[in-house]
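Give me the 3D structure for MFS transporter.
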Amino acid sequence: MKTTAHLDRQSLLLLAVDGLIVLAAALSGTFLNVYLWKSKQDYTMIGWFTVAQQIAVGLTFWVGGKWVKEYNKMNALRVGIVLSGVFYLLVLWVGSDIIHWIWPLGLLLGISTGLFWLSFNVVYFEVTNRENRDLFNGWVGLLGSITGIIGPWFSGLLITWLKGDRGYRLIFTISMVIYALCVVLSFFLKKRKNGSNYHWMEPITQLRSKGSPWRLMAPALVAQGVREGVFAFLIGLLVYVATKQEAKLGQFTLITSAISLLTYWLAGKWYKPQYRSPGMLVGALLLWIVILPLLWKTSYGTLLILGIGSSIFMPLYLLPMISSGFDLMGTSNETVEKRVELVVLRELSLMVGRLLGTFIFIAVLMISKAPMTITVLMLILGSSPIVGWIFVRKLLKAEKSAITNK
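Predicted structure for MFS transporter (406 residues):
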């Protein structure tokens, strides 16, 4: 008998928390790197800020896994939210001296991010199942697109209108208020059951085990992270460098997020598990192709082509990658019991990829900062999703066979 996927009250509450967190990040995070750039025009400095974040995220996932599994994961989630607010409070405090605080601020932002998303991913696994996970992910993408439309556009207009640091200080303050609201909302989420003892070395054990599917999933996630680590901060920064206008960056994000809203909605509604493998390959190839116009010129127009193309094709690649990874955590009672350790393994794999991509970016730009160098580097790093599909396709084929034989 076929059942219709649906989301219960706890899933909806978790979506609300996620939506607000993404809204706060959209308001301030989009312009954080621009704020750094205006203090000192140095790509490598922003690269090191990203490295600090990713190191802290990975270590927080690994160390925080014990807290989340054996104690109160909801408190870990709340502490992550609170520290995000503290981060923006410190940014307001240090002001133009932020370039001297790149490492401590990057580490703090990474710790807050790690605690929140570790807890969120575990709770997400517990409130969803194989039937409604694609639906939940589709809604996550949809909310991310809506907040991506509202947040950066509003922030860009506000910064342009107020001029100077006043606009930045106001949006950072608004983000702190949103984080406070998230803490309040989190208390309506049920306290989750504690698990058994936390196994510190489980990620290594999984990678050493010959029969573990994570020997394919982990390198696929590393490949995904290579692109994410650089593109996450570079695209918005390039838009600002090309236009010198925060309002243009807000407009860019509004357009691309509006398109993402539609594509994530369609993907959540129609993208079924049996289509994951061919969909991922098509998505990965097209994500690379839309970078090619930058070979002609790095302008607002060519960056917009990249942004629109990424908005259209990213759901094809990303939703199967996310859902397949979490499906591996529910294949047996043993994997369900080890869900925290597997979430840690997932994030550590992404962290390795993000760090690898960022280190390559920093190393190349220390040799040459020419625009064409950056474009060629984007083409190389942007091909990594294809590598991710190569690793994960066997898992997707096995999933399709299992669905077909039901």
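The first helix runs from residue 9 to 39. Let me know if you want a second pass.
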